[in-house]
């Protein structure tokens, strides 16, 4: 009997995709100091394709890696004693297991290394250049820091992105191989310095290689809206991996900058592609109502005859459809806690639409930004108040409440090894911590382990009544 399947399935060649696509962006946020601004950023990234976003002017103090409630990782490096400048990365949660290292070169230059396969890595450098009001010494120091980041850990691919505060324009001479034929006209002194650096290091400013309309070219506008410049760039050492660079007009956070995004496509050999282990958390969750789950499948398959002449592919589709329907109905789903109300999200969408139109009064856009900021602040306060009340009513730990109200989970970003060397490599950090706890919990008294005598009995006179209590139990050895 012909089952209708493919008789030559074993002879079929399996084609593995050798392309890795990454959407790498850069954005000057103007500030991520408050929780409201961070929530607004998380809301905006839900509407675009992205893998890594380099951030300028985060204005957060110190250096920290935090896993946000959304699952994405936020890394930032700023001044220790003042909330100015600073850079950061927002890394999509799908890459959490692929972070090799995060390193602060300075508050203006940071470096991220992502693992593509077992053998291939990509380095992403985010920068925030001094403004034109700063002296040339700060600019020279910036490019020295970029050189340090480039030479620090050699990888197969490199991307440099950020706010360069320089107008470089388009190619003016055939010798300017680092530039393409497109861009806004004009080049200033900082643009000349930037071009010299690109030529010396064989780097390519990829914004200039793709033709865009003028409205999709500029990345910064003055407060009065009259002056528009292109000063945020995507740069790479291998021109072939960048397939497009575009400015996203619909991404809006009230900043005077616009988000610039590059589509990076890397072709990797098939054998090396097979070595990639994609870690996903899509485990099947047990239905709360097993009988209902089975009953739904039986009802869907009631009119189906296994002895019919239908081919195996049709029967497979019917069975799959029945199981998916039952799973969606009975298997529990993880509900994401929403800080923003529906009305606030609607306001953000209206502001996004307003920005996308292009022709809008500057005062009207400012008013929209104020309304959105006020609504986000109100929603976060209501969210925090609700959690505090619920924690109080349930008589739960204040420590758990503070963890829920925080922006995410903090991580160790650098650690000293046994040899006294400070490392930022994630694998080395984990290995150092693992060795420490293994040594800590390993018995040092071999005689006690090998002894055949019975161990001393530990008697607790008074146990700890509450885990939150700071009183220690009285312990004696009989």
Question: What does this molecule look like?
Answer:
With 478 residues, the protein is α+β, with helices and mostly antiparallel strands. The chain folds into four domains: 255 residues, Deoxyribonuclease I, Chain A (4-Layer Sandwich); 41 residues; 69 residues, no CATH class; 63 residues, no CATH class. Helices cover 32% and strands 22% of the residues. A hairpin with a 4-residue loop joins strand 6 and strand 7. The longest helix is centred in the C-terminal third of the chain and has 33 residues. The relative contact order is 0.11.
Span of the ends, CA to CA = 79 Å
* Total beta strand runs: 20
Tell me, rounded to a whole number, the average pLDDT: 83
Question: CATH superfamily membership of the largest domain, which one?
Answer: Endonuclease/exonuclease/phosphatase
Low-confidence regions: 12-16, 273-277, 457-478
Proportion of helical residues: 25-40%
Count of helices?
11
What's the CATH architecture name of the largest domain? 4-Layer Sandwich
Spatial extent as radius of gyration = 28 Å
Largest sheet: 8 strands, mixed
Q: What count of structural domains?
A: 4
Largest sheet: spatial strand order: 14-15-1-2-5-4-3-16
Shape: globular
CATH fold assignment of the largest domain: Deoxyribonuclease I, Chain A
């Amino acid at each position: 009997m012909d089952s209708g399947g493919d008789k030559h399935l074993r002879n079929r060649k399996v084609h593995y995709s050798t392309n890795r696509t990454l959407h790498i962006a850069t954005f000057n946020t103007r500030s991520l100091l408050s929780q409201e601004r961070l929530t607004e950023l998380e809301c905006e990234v839900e509407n675009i394709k992205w893998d890594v976003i380099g951030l300028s002017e985060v204005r957060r103090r110190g250096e920290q890696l935090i896993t946000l409630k959304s699952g994405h990782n936020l890394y930032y490096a700023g001044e220790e004693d003042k909330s100015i400048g600073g850079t950061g990365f927002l890394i999509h949660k799908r890459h959490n297991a692929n972070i090799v290292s995060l390193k602060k070169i300075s508050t203006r230059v940071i470096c991220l290394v992502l693992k593509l396969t077992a053998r291939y890595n990509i380095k992403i450098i985010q920068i925030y250049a001094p403004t034109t009001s700063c002296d040339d010494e700060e600019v020279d120091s910036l490019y020295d820091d970029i050189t340090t980041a480039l030479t620090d850990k050699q990888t197969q691919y490199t991307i440099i992105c950020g706010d360069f505060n320089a107008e470089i324009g388009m190619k003016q001479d055939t010798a300017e191989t680092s530039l393409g034929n497109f861009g806004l006209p004009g080049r200033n002194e900082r643009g000349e310095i930037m071009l010299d650096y690109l030529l010396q290091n064989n780097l390519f400013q990829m914004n200039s290689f793709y033709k865009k309309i003028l409205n999709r070219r500029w990345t910064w506008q003055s407060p009065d809206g009259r002056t528009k410049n292109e000063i945020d760039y995507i740069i790479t050492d291998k021109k072939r991996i960048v397939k497009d660079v575009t400015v996203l007009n619909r991404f809006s956070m009230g900043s005077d900058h616009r988000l610039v995004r590059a589509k990076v496509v890397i072709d990797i050999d098939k054998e090396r592609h097979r070595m990639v282990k994609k870690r996903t958390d899509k485990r099947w969750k047990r239905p709360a109502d097993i009988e209902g789950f089975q009953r739904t499948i039986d009802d869907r398959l009631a009119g189906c005859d296994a002895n019919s002449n239908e081919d195996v592919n049709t029967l497979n589709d019917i069975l799959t459809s029945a199981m998916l329907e039952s799973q969606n109905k009975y298997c529990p789903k993880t509900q994401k806690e929403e800080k923003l109300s529906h009305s606030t999200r609607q306001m953000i969408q209206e502001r996004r639409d307003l920005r996308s139109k292009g022709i809008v009064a500057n005062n009207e856009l400012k008013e929209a930004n104020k309304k959105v900021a006020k609504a986000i602040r109100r929603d976060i306060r209501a969210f925090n108040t609700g959690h505090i009340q619920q924690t109080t009513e349930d008589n739960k730990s204040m420590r758990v409440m503070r963890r829920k109200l925080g922006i995410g989970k903090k991580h160790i970003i650098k650690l000293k090894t046994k040899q006294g060397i400070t490392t930022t490599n994630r694998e080395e950090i984990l290995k150092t911590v693992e060795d420490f706890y293994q040594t800590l919990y390993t018995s040092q008294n071999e005689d006690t382990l090998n002894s055949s005598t019975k161990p001393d009995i530990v008697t607790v006179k008074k146990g700890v009544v509450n885990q939150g209590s700071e009183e220690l139990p009285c312990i004696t050895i009989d």
